[in-house]
From TrEMBL:
It comes from the Eukaryota. Belongs to the Mo25 family. This is Mo25 family protein. The lineage of its organism: Eukaryota, Viridiplantae, Streptophyta, Embryophyta, Tracheophyta. Gene3D superfamilies: Leucine-rich Repeat Variant.
Amino acid sequence: MKGLFKNKSRLPGEIVRQTRDLIALAESEEEIDSRNSKRLGICAELCRNISDLKSILYGNSEAEPVPEACLMLTQEFFREDTLRPLIKSIPKLDLEARKDATQIVANLQKQQVESRLVASEYLESNLDVIDSLVEGIDHDHELALHYTGMLKECVRHQVVAKYILESKNLDKFFDYVQLPYFDVATDASKIFRELLTRHKSTVAEYLTKNYEWFFAEYNTKLLEKGSYFTKRQASKLLGDVLMDRSNSGVMVKYVSSLDNLRIMMNLLREPTKNIQLEAFHIFKLFVANENKPEDIVAILVANRNKILRLFADLKAEKEDVGFETDKSLVMNEIATLSLLDIKTADR
């Protein structure tokens, strides 16, 4: 099958250079006169170029992408800064060109040059691009989806995830996951999960250093005040984070807090089973803790009958032997727990 770039009069590198020039021209013409017909012609040509770049990276109905063409495109893209102006131009493009540009940026995060992820190296030196993507989610619905689509791929790079975690950008995601547009909120939730689960050593270090702030925000904004969708996603993510071995120290600290236990007990009383089940997987960590603090033992004993009645009726959506085993162990531990355990724990 013939390569895509062999059927074109222009090589991939040339298309990238022309695209970069067209973005600059479109911007300068707009500054001069937004009604200028010349600018409209430049924008049309820019959209065609972006479509050609997407075809090189993804192929089309007639041909698969050619590695050599992808390499040439990638090298030129990062030889000079083309990623930043392309992202900046997205609000000015038509809908199809926006989609194409989003896919180009996403695809470039995976392209390698001599076994190096050059996009990762580029972003490490140009982290303001990540600021632009995060801030872009604050745009209207249609634009926000393009920014989340690009950012989902960028956060796969450890340097990007670390930057977002350690910057004010992370705080924005406590709001983004609750945006009124379901598809945008879903994308934001996927990015949030990626930030907290993919790069384990980075996440463990961050949570250890920022424990108080992070969990205060997480508990208040997501687990206590969130919608059904927010509470379900947040409780599931929290369970995955706490049960990851790399976060063992953070988990022990979390399950030693009476305030955190009360939040889980409230989630267990939610009317929806899905939230109850997610809360159970976190609640069992409090019960399994061999060094339960005095106040936690006291509240478990004081609420023993209510907890046991609730768990007696709690069942997984599908038959789940593991869940039933865990539930049995938790119920047995609570049933045999007494205030004498406080004294035992203190010795």
